[in-house]
Amino acid sequence: MSIIPLPVLTATRYVQPLREGGSLPAVVDTHGGGLFVAKFRGAGQGVKALIAELIVGMLARHVQLPTPEPALIEIPESFGRTEPDPEIQDLLRASHGVNVGAKYLDGAFNFDGNAAADYITPELAARIVWFDAFVSNPDRTHRNPNLMIWERKPYLIDHGAALYAQHDWPSVDEARTRSPFQLIKDHVLLAQSGDIDAADSELAPMMSADVIRAALDAIPDELLTDASIKSDFAKPADARDRYVKYLSLRAESPRAFVDEAKSARQRASRIPALRVSSRR
10-residue block means of pLDDT along the chain (280 residues)? Predict the structure, then answer.
């Protein structure tokens, strides 16, 4: 399976805000594409969160992890002018141009390990744990699992906190690139995950440099010329090369994040499960 090109859709109607999300996402209708959850470049988390959303979402789909279809969402200057909320007006004015979206899963509900754990097999849990450790995603915890259940299937959402190395590229040398991901100990699926070595054997070969390059090539120049990116890279090609180098090296053996996940899994198996509530 190869990286599927991102569709480019134009937002036509602001449907409703999703106040739970820290990035102020919203459900928008699009021309020919239906409803999408849009994340806006003008939100406080900035363009780097959108880049992480796209890269991680595309790689997840490449390895057949369940993730809503990603897309690029064009916000025209006329969009949302009739919205009465001044905060929304300001956000949309700061987000003209390319933004990021994921297909809206109508009727989906938040994952709760006490009620929905049966929808995720140990094998799938191990693959998700491996993947989140690979992309250094700290944001799939018991308090905020960023998992939705839709039509009795789990879907991974909200990848904007992943790839946090991008927030300080000058400090990311080879040792830091290869470092274990210690926050995997807080992963919502860790305790129920199965054979992480088997997940590693399956997924690591799928993360080739060509696949990673294809994902970065799908990121539009408009995002890679944002001021937050230009502070590190003069040209979009330079930014793409840096992300490819980082992820390709992280995928190479030895993968310390795999050993860390296995150790954390072993420790988690000795701790009695707690009943917790989840939120998006």
Answer: 87 89 86 96 94 97 96 94 89 96 95 85 97 97 94 95 97 97 97 97 97 97 96 97 98 98 91 51
State the residue for tokens 């890279």: 233
Instruction: Please tell me the predicted confidence (pLDDT) of residue 115.
Output: 74
Backbone angles phi, psi at 19, to 5 degrees: -65, -20
Give the residue among 123, 108, 140 at the shortest CA–CA distance from 63. 123
pTM, full prediction? 0.93
CB atoms within 10 A of CB 194: 16
Supply the pLDDT for residue 279: 44
| Measured distance CA(243)–CA(78) in Å, rounded | 34
Helices (H), the chain: 46-62, 86-93, 113-116, 122-134, 174-177, 196-203, 209-217, 221-224, 227-230, 236-251, 256-268
Distance in angstroms (rounded) separating the CA atoms of residues 5 and 25: 23
Q: What does DSSP assign to residue 235?
A: S
β-pairing, 109-110 with 97-103?
unpaired
- Beta strands 97-103 and 70-75: pairing type? antiparallel
Strand-pairing partners, residue 14, are 28
Q: Which residues pair with 101 in a beta bridge?
A: 38, 71
Measured from the Cβ of residue 214, the count of other Cβ atoms closer than 10 Å reads: 18
Q: Give the span between the Cα atoms of 18 and 101, in whole angstroms.
A: 13
User: String of b and e for 221-245 (b: at least 16 CB within 10 Å)?
Assistant: eebbebeebeeebeebeebbebbbe
> Angle CA(167)–CA(193)–CA(216) in degrees, nearest 5?
35
CA distance 199 to 47: 31
pLDDT at position 21 is 58
pLDDT for position 123: 97
